[in-house]
Amino acid sequence: MSTALTGLVRYLAFGHFAARTIRGAISKSLQKPPLNLPREERTAVMRSISWKAGEIMVSKRMRTIDPPSRGHLEWSAWILAAYHVLRPHFENDEETVEYLGEAALRGFNTRRLRIGMWLLLRTCRGNVGQVKAALGAMLTQYGASFDWDRLEQDDEVDMQVNRCFYFDFFRAHDLPLLTTVLCKLDQLWFDRIDPQKHGFRFDHEQRETMPRSAERCVFPIVRVTIKASK
């Protein structure tokens, strides 16, 4: 695959697909509690978010250093715009961030994605080395606006993200906690890991994230011995 085509695919994955999904997720959530907005108001809200997201993308275009980062900017701008438009509907920042996180989680939790997660976990069954390779391949697709390391011990692989486009973007707007809207999407595959089926587990207690004041994001994957069936 040519470099130009690879770049286009990576942009579409993070930009077109992710941004379209977050738009649809927010639109559907406006119809439900706690907002329950009528149709005309939903239309007005989505129009305002779209307009503001466009302004943000234009003003922050210098952050795009490669095709993936153009995609990162597109859906980060949508999340930031949605936050600013919807913030007056909530008591505080935390409630607004939580609302957007739940909307994103529902929007991305599609049948197609669940099948993809099932296939990925199946190929990694009983093989932490394959987990390491899969996570490394995934993080590579995020491009130059991310920096990450892979630390290995006897029974553990720690994926460490030292630089994150999303965290840098939202922190620059004094809203680092808004990064957790995207962090929440990790649940879509971490929660599907069955240690006795797949031979590894995600250590939630040792997880660290920059939006929660850590120096870097750490995702610990621990090998588990699969018990033989009787």
Q: What this model shows, in words?
A:
The chain is of the alpha+beta class and 230 residues long. The protein has helices at 3-29, 39-59, 67-86, 93-108, 111-123, 128-140, 165-172, 180-183, 187-190, 195-198; strands spanning 147-152, 156-163, 200-202, 217-223. The termini are far apart. The protein folds into two domains: 3-108, no CATH class; 126-223, no CATH class. The protein has a four-stranded antiparallel sheet with strand order 1-2-4-3. The model has no long low-confidence stretch (mean pLDDT 90). The chain contains ten helices and four strands. The chain is globular, with a radius of gyration of 19 Å. Strand 1 and strand 2 form a beta hairpin. 57% of the residues lie in helices and 10% in strands.
What is the structural class?
A: alpha+beta
Instruction: Please give the largest β-sheet.
Output: 4 strands, antiparallel
Helix proportion: 55-70%
Estimated share of beta-strand residues: 5-15%
Order of helices and strands: HHHHHHEEHHHHEE
General shape: globular
Q: Give the neighbour order of strands across the main sheet.
A: 1-2-4-3
Number of β-strand runs: 4
Given the structure, what is the number of helices? Answer: 10
What is the straight-line distance between the termini? 48 Å
The low-confidence runs, each spanning 5 or more residues with pLDDT under 50, are: none
The tally of structural domains comes to 2
Structural Rg: 19 Å
Average pLDDT for all residues: 90
